[in-house]
Amino acid sequence: MEPIFPILKLPKNVIVHVLEGIDFTQLLIFSLISLKTKQLVTSLGIEARDVDIGINRKISINVHSTKSYSSLNFYDELSDQNELSLVDINIPVAATFEYLYTRIQSPTPLLSFNNWLNHIRTIFSYTKPLNVYFREGCERFEVQSLKNALGNINTLFLTGLPDDSSRKILKNFNAPSELFLYRNPFEDTCHIQQILISNCEILRFVDEYSLDDMLLINSEKVKFYRSATQKQFNQFLKHWIRGSNPRLRRMSLLITGLVDGEVYLKGIRCMRMSKAAKREIRRKHNLSDFLHMIQIKRKDGTAAVVASEKSDDMHYVRFIVLH
Amino acid sequence: MTSPASSSEVKYLIESSEGNTFDVSGAALRQSNTFNAMFLNIGADGPIPFTDYNEATLKKVFEYCEHSVNEENYSGPKHQDDLSKWDLNFFNEMDQKMFIDVINASNFLDIERLTSYCCERIARMLRGKNTQEMIKVITLPTAEELEAKQKVEEKKAAAAKKVAEKAAETAEKTETLEELPVQQLVQTTRNKLTRKYLSFSNE
């Protein structure tokens, strides 16, 4: 027989003491029982550090605090894996909770996805924009409804999606601080360039890119996962010296074609750096001791470091603008 | 006998809600931060009144304090599996009412170790539960029960309203009757009876 205990009749400080002894997920479940339990959990003052939304065949809300995390899953009913039934996220739904190796199914309460989010934002005092990860299968959910529920977002992560879905998502979630784009979903180059020119702080791009694409980028930090040629990077550096990409602070990429010799710095005036200066940059940017570094300067006097590490026939390059 | 606690041999008299007194060692009492704040430095004249709690509860609480006098300093709540056999027996032999009384008394007396162990036992009841199971544990009424309760209350309110209306009506009639002189009252009653008689005749 389950134990029964009238916890809510205890003094508030005792209830708070009890709640401090249960994990993040159980707190979340406890907060859903009544308005009073919601207020009690809110009064603990636990702040979420990040709230990530994963959208594929199901939707997950992952809440991270400084000490722990909790995961809630929605629409993860087992159905024919080949069949992607459309889901209206405005219809109230129950959640499944996951914590470490525990999975707790809770048939109540039934809330709309928007209300689930509001509940989490309230009890964990989370007001920042969310990080949203779209993956294969997310086509089940209507993008406009998701946009209405999620609002402005911090990170937008797109991978493994049909081009049509990617385009819809990029159109609706058009101003993230950080964008991860696995594949260019546009046929026309001007459309992808509109994405690259947007001023998100961090851009991670996995698909092919041209010199023009590089020069249009308006982000502070960029990571290219595909390689550039030595010539392409050399031309980029020459444009940067003349004043292109004024917002750029850091870029990482791979350079191939080293069998013909290292020509990516050809025609560029490079300055040697002192050991102390190199050590400071390694410390500040968390770089390995094996990176080779040279310094360049643009016409307005801004300095940058090209740090590279050779591996087989390619260079792993970090371009760091110094303030 | 009461005196400032300078040695663990000193005994203090405690008074319960029933007015009964019993003694507790200074060492045991000093686990209570409430006692430390109120009496440790100034001493107490006569029994210390903890009269919000009954004798059985206070004896149980101080039984725990006496037992843990020689344990090392408290360093945060222990996991249930780490509790000693004595601790487990102490908790297991209490019924729920006594357990609640002990938590409340321990909370008032601010006995950190005992309060923490009690809270840990309650927290265990919540672990691994979904919302419905938690509702059962904390004996919160379900939606159906709330609805049923509301219906009963509505019925009660309606019945109470009827009674109140009837009472008001009766009071009004009584008032009217009281205001009439005796002769007029006799006449009013006669008229009523006549109307009643006529209505029967018409049938």
Q: Can you describe this structure in just a few lines?
A:
Chain B: Residues 113-159 form the SKP1 component dimerisation domain. Chain A is of the alpha/beta class and 323 residues long.
Mean pLDDT of chain A: 90
| Average pLDDT score of chain B | 77
Structural class of chain A: alpha/beta
- Identify the CATH architecture of the largest domain in chain B: 2-Layer Sandwich
CATH homologous superfamily classification of the largest domain in chain B: Potassium Channel Kv1.1, Chain A
Biggest sheet statistics of chain B: 3 strands, mixed
Overall geometric form of chain A: elongated
Kindly estimate the percentage of residues of chain B that lie in beta strands according to DSSP. Answer: 5-15%
Question: What is the C-alpha radius of gyration of chain B, as a whole number of Å?
Answer: 32 Å
Structural class of chain B: mainly alpha
Enumerate the strands of the largest sheet of chain B in spatial order, edge to edge or round the barrel. Answer: 2-1-3
Question: Shape of chain B, please?
Answer: flat
- Calculate the terminal CA-CA distance of chain B, rounded to whole Å: 91 Å
Report the end-to-end length of chain A measured between terminal Cα atoms: 67 Å
The largest interface is: A-B, 33 and 29 residues
CATH fold description of the largest domain in chain B: Potassium Channel Kv1.1, Chain A
Order of helices and strands of chain A: HHHEEEEEHEHEHEHEHEHEHEEE
Residue ranges of chain B: pLDDT <50 for 5 or more in a row?
Answer: 1-8, 196-203
The largest sheet of chain A has its strands arranged as 5-4-3-2-1-6-7-8-9-10-11-14-13-12
Oligomer: heterodimer
| Total beta strand runs of chain A | 14
GO biological process, one term (chain B): ubiquitin-dependent protein catabolic process
InterPro entries (chain B): SKP1, SKP1-like, SKP1-like_dim_sf, SKP1/BTB/POZ_sf, Skp1_comp_dimer, Skp1_comp_POZ
Organism (chain B): Caenorhabditis remanei
Family (chain B): Belongs to the SKP1 family.
